[in-house]
């Protein structure tokens, strides 16, 4: 079974399915009752309102639409950490460099800067917290928050549910107040459900894109469809929803998601569309709220957002806008009041207890192969130093240029899973074991395989002939070079068909070579030199 996960229109990911706990979120109607906040929750005042000297602030229609400048008089997000679970963040961007905490890469399980080779995470981070008043670029909605980059998407924009769940746990355990997830899947993954429940049990606000699936039938989009996640729809500059924004009973609020200026990798800027951007707006507003009322629970922050939203569409909560488009200034007014709406049912559920702790050991053959050779990987899964037999797992494979797809597999009586395949291009592979009620999650290291094309030259049957044989070059444009004096010049180019090609009418005594270009799938080469008879 394969499950495909997409980024919410700044992008894409892949997850699998297992059974998990259900966490409860906002009530179906706004509560009319209120409850006094604890006196220990002191109100914090922003030190200064950021000046309006960022050159592109005038293009940021979303700032004024959600009343962020008015909100800055009371909160700029100081003291709050927002974890951006995505493709990493460009740590050298002039509008982000001073906003970032040290990052983590769940794909490699390493502390690193989460270098963003895909670009999506940098876009999300800029909307939330681009430096404001620095005379550069744009203004972040919560310019004094710190961004914790947690890389869960690879360089192709793909990832797995287990890596994402590990990112959630890492973010919670490293001080995140708000978690932003701008990606979606139509399949509920228990490993994510459990991780989200863990975050909520620790008081962390979890925000996710509502998805861009309207034209595909409005299928529920996870993790946003989890009841304990704030799911965000997109709005445009006139408060209408764009044609892609998912309509669903799971939508909680809406926020700008059309033509949104933000940061881009390499120090640049670009305008983006999609509920990825909308989720970033809501994460930033949640950070403003937590900055002034740090003792608010995640449930209370949800209720503040819902009760302060600008009601759009049908009165009350609807499938297009949820409770309405967020209003940062109104949210702070509600948050700094003496009473808040009380949830009519609990919104946090403790994660399931797990018993077995699986360990995955991976071994593989050569990782650099000739096109067509067989790649082999063997996984041995143990728990308590014994074979973990008969256990479901997910084999995640990502061909070059694509996200991971998952295939369900089961460990044999020795706890072993073996995989082999003829290689046609570069790919990555890993084994994931999502958490269940009887075991914790586990992941193997990611194995990366490189595939090389081949090409050779030999004399033909007749004078003036050379025969080129090749493998792994289908669809590529190859080049036949001739040595002219001390330098190589192009004799001709050709697209190979079959397994070999014969050139005729070549200069007797001439020296030739074939050049195969590098591609995302295969490593190219320059052949040995052949001399024409």
Automatic annotation (TrEMBL):
The active site is at residues 86, 120, 276. This is Peptidase S8/S53 domain-containing protein. The keyword Phosphoprotein does not apply. GO terms for molecular function: serine-type endopeptidase activity. Keywords: Hydrolase, Protease, Serine protease. Belongs to the peptidase S8 family. Residues 77-324 form the Peptidase S8/S53 domain. InterPro entries: Peptidase_S8/S53_dom, Peptidase_S8/S53_dom_sf, Peptidase_S8_Asp-AS, Peptidase_S8_His-AS, Peptidase_S8_subtilisin-like, Peptidase_S8_subtilisin-rel. One of its GO terms (biological process) is proteolysis. Pfam families: Peptidase_S8. The keyword Nuclease does not apply.
């Amino acid at each position: 079974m394969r499950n495909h996960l997409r980024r919410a229109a700044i992008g894409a990911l892949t997850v699998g399915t297992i059974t998990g706990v259900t966490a409860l979120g906002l009530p179906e109607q706004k509560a009319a009752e209120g409850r006094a906040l604890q006196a220990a929750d002191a109100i914090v005042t922003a030190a200064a309102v950021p000046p309006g000297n960022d050159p592109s602030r005038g293009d940021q229609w979303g700032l004024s639409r959600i009343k962020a400048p008015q909100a800055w008089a009371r909160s700029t997000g100081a003291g709050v950490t927002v974890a951006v679970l995505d493709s990493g963040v460009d740590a050298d961007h002039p509008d982000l460099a001073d906003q970032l905490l040290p990052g983590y890469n769940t794909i490699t399980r390493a502390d690193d800067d989460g270098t963003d080779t895909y670009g999506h995470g940098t876009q999300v981070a800029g909307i939330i917290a681009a430096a404001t008043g620095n005379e550069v670029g744009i203004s972040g909605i919560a310019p004094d928050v710190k961004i914790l980059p947690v890389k869960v998407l690879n360089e192709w924009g793909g990832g797995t549910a287990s890596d994402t769940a590990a990112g959630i746990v890492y973010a919670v355990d490293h001080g995140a107040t708000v978690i932003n997830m701008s990606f979606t899947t139509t399949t509920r993954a228990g490993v994510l459900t459990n991780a989200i429940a863990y975050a909520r049990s620790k008081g962390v606000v979890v925000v996710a894109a509502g998805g861009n699936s309207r034209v595909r039938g409005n299928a529920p989009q996870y993790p946003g469809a989890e009841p304990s996640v704030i799911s965000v729809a997109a709005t445009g500059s006139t408060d209408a929803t764009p044609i892609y924004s998912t309509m669903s009973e799971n939508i909680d609020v809406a926020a700008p998601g059309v033509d949104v200026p933000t940061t881009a990798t390499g120090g640049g800027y670009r305008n983006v569309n999609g509920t990825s951007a909308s989720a970033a707006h809501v994460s930033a507003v949640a950070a403003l709220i937590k900055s002034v009322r740090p003792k608010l629970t995640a449930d209370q922050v949800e209720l503040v957002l819902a009760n302060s939203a600008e009601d759009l569409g049908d009165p009350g909560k609807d499938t297009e806008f949820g409770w309405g488009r967020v209003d940062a200034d109104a949210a702070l007014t509600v948050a700094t009041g003496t009473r808040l709406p009380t949830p009519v049912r609990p919104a946090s559920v403790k994660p399931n207890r797990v018993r077995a702790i699986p360990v995955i050991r991976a071994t593989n053959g050569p990782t650099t192969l000739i096109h067509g050779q067989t790649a082999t990987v063997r996984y041995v899964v143990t728990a308590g130093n014994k074979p973990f037999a008969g256990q479901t797992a997910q084999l995640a494979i990502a061909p070059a240029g694509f996200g991971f797809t998952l295939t369900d597999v089961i460990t044999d009586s020795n706890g072993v899973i073996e995989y082999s395949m003829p290689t046609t291009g570069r790919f990555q592979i890993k084994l994931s074991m999502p958490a269940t009620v009887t075991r914790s999650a586990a992941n193997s290291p990611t194995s990366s395989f490189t595939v090389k094309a081949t090409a050779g030259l030999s004399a033909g049957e007749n004078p003036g002939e050379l025969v080129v044989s090749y493998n792994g070059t289908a669809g590529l444009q190859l080049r036949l070079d001739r040595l002219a004096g001390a330098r190589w010049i192009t004799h001709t180019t050709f697209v190979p068909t079959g397994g070999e090609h014969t050139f005729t009418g070549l200069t007797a005594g001439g020296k030739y070579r074939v050049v195969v270009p590098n591609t995302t799938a295969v490593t190219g080469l320059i052949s040995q030199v052949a001399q024409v008879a």
